[in-house]
Specification:
about 325 residues; mainly alpha; 2 domains; two-stranded antiparallel ribbon
């Protein structure tokens, strides 16, 4: 009798377990189906990708999209997040010439803000989307970047990195008092690092200095979880390093010109002078000074200054 009861009990447990598994599987399938249906609704009138992405806001509002997701907000938010990354990536690949740092208007990223808005409307705790917007969107529309980041702070008040990104946007716009206030507010968040308060003070004292910029992009590089943001910060750091190197070379070329009465025709004529600044510069195997991307600097004879080589990966700004 006991054996029969135990067998019945185990059978009931198995049925419950199977029922839960079936329910979870059904929910996953339904979620994927919702994403597929939404994708077809949005893209039913297929036009070039950029135009489709831009005109989505005319057809489906973020609020309506949230209702249409039938509770699978996270899955649909992931879908829009992937579209955002693809959209920016395609724009960069299609752009002819180097992408200017800090000013992305040439990429015509008009759909970036609507795509990010959909992502965070569907999932207000999607911190990575706010962070990405705080880095990329200022190059398109500063005020929209500020609004998006503030919205992220409201939805995630304990995410101190969002205060860091808000401070970055204000700093980049030259609004140092507001940047200082953003860092000060972030410094009061639990687990915020000590440098948040130090950065607040630095904004007040020397917001526009090159050293502040170097500190800012170093922090962005070290703290970012998104590889795209890290790459962007590293590009800025290389650009700043190149500015320092060109300043050093400008002084050296000026000394050479005052001493000899002419501008050197090549770096070979300046070997002695370059040796004095060897600790501040980097050289190729021929002893020619190179930029952080490894491309040799050129001498512009018209102004007797060091300039970037034609194949340099350092941004022109």
């Amino acid at each position: 009798m006991t054996f029969v009861n135990d067998e019945n009990s185990h059978s009931k447990v198995r049925r419950r377990s199977n029922a839960k598994t079936a329910l979870l599987a059904t929910l996953i399938v339904c979620g994927l189906a919702v994403v597929a249906v939404l994708s077809r609704v949005i893209d039913s009138t297929r036009v070039p990708y950029e135009q489709t992405a831009t005109e989505e806001s005319l057809y489906v509002s973020p609020g309506a999209l949230k209702r249409m997701s039938l509770g699978f907000n996270g899955l649909v938010a992931d879908y829009y997040w992937l579209r955002t990354i693809q959209y920016v990536g395609r724009k960069i690949m299609a752009h002819e010439g180097p992408v200017p740092l800090g000013d992305l208007r040439a990429l015509d990223l008009r759909a970036l803000a609507p795509l990010l808005e959909r992502t965070v409307t569907l999932d207000p705790q999607f911190v990575a989307a706010y962070e990405y917007g705080a880095i990329i969107l200022p190059g398109v529309d500063v005020e929209k970047a500020i609004d998006l980041t503030k919205r992220g702070i409201e939805a995630n008040p304990q995410a101190w990195r969002l205060y860091h990104h808000l401070g970055y946007i204000y700093w980049q716009a030259g609004r140092f008092d507001e940047a200082s206030a953003a860092y000060a507010a972030g410094a009061n968040v639990a687990n915020a690092p000590r440098w948040m308060r130090l950065m607040s003070a630095r904004m007040q004292a020397e917001g526009g200095s090159r050293e502040t910029a170097r500190a800012m992009y170093t922090l962005l590089y070290e703290e970012a979880s998104d590889q795209g943001i890290r790459d962007m910060a590293l590009n800025y750091l290389h650009w700043l390093r190149s500015l320092d190197e060109r300043d050093t070379l400008r002084r050296m070329l000026g000394d050479f010109q005052r001493r000899t009465g002419k501008c050197p025709g090549s770096w070979r004529e300046t070997k002695q002078d370059l040796r004095a600044d060897a600790n501040l510069l980097r050289f190729d195997q021929n002893g020619t000074p190179v930029d952080p991307s490894g491309v040799a600097y050129r001498i512009d004879p018209n102004v007797c200054e060091a300039i970037l080589g034609s194949t340099s990966k350092i941004a022109r700004r």
